[in-house]
Amino acid sequence: MQLDKISAAGSGTWSSPFSVSQAISNQSGAAYSVEGYVVGQPVSQTSVLTSGFPNDYALALADSPNETNTSDMVFVQIPSAFRSSYGLQSNPGLMGQKLKVTGNLTAYFSHPGVKSTTAFEVVQGDSDPTDPGDPPVYEEYYSTAEGKTGSNLKSALHNIIDDHTTLSYSEVWGALRNTDEDPANSNNVLLLYSGRSQSKFTNGGNVDDWNREHVWAKSHGDFGTAQGPGTDLHHLRPTDVTVNSSRGNLDFDNGGGEHGEAPGNYYDGDSWEPRDEVKGDVARMIFYMAVRYEGDSGELDLELNNYVNNGSAPYHGKMSVLLEWHAEDPVDSREIRRNNIIFEDYQGNRNPFIDHPEWAGMIW
């Protein structure tokens, strides 16, 4: 686990606790705080009960309230002083609730765990993240953009989102397993263009593997895979290797022949049209990149234009078509979830066009 990711997702303090995945990766024996959803009571290294709890001695936490894979859980020892309040035999209603605990990160039941626990707290308001509801309103986050339009709005949003934690390109693999998890199968990711659900760990460079697609083609500005635009999760998505190769560095536009391995996607010599279900997703990722990277602090100035065949220039098109796709395919729950995870667990910044879709038309 790299330090920059830890600082984004949590430092292990009470006010900035580790996620469960961080706790699993940091079994050092030191005392840290961890936050996760109660998913059952461990009774062995590989067995977690979800009902019929035999006692109040232990509980299991996970980053999702629906987690069933014990390898993605941390087992928490409950000292006698906390059993009446946090043991599952006495408090079965804790199932699915988010809990914050402090203790030593060390094996319990020969499994990643938290022992010698000294503090417990139910985190209010986080018991059902499976229904994201309306896009989250972060009015304080966007307060400096209020009342602005056009270039002034674009500049204000850039200043809000430009300072964030960056990941290495290798860390992107693990992040995508989280951001693009299939809600119907926590062992899989959903591939952007094909829509295929595929094992999280079949990533690589072979045929039918999934790899890291730069939705803003990395040759458009020639930024490659360097930290910054090359590793920005807001436009990196899992895609099938051969489908990714077919998309290449094409700009976005309507038309072309249908892709044999990714039905609903069309392409020709100068453009790529994604399937209808993700047209808006693609547009909003491109909008984000054009606002986030404005040429200050030694970074590239990435901009939208209304052309295709942009090649290595730091431009991406076709703007008029992307705006149409943005309107035709509104923000959905998967985008909201993804935006929240990137903000809360990795980079600490948001895609404004998911939170406020109306801003795209106010800028372009």
UniProtKB/TrEMBL annotation:
Domain (Endonuclease YhcR N-terminal) spans 18-122
SUPFAM superfamilies the UniProt entry points to? His-Me finger endonucleases
Provide this UniProt record's keywords sorted from A to Z: Endonuclease, Hydrolase, Nuclease
Asked whether the UniProt record includes Cell division among its keywords, one would answer: no
Give one Pfam family: DUF6359
User: Where is the stretch described as Disordered?
Assistant: 251-273
Q: Name one GO molecular function term.
A: endonuclease activity
Protein's recorded name: Endonuclease
Source species taxonomy? Bacteria, Bacillati, Bacillota, Bacilli, Bacillales
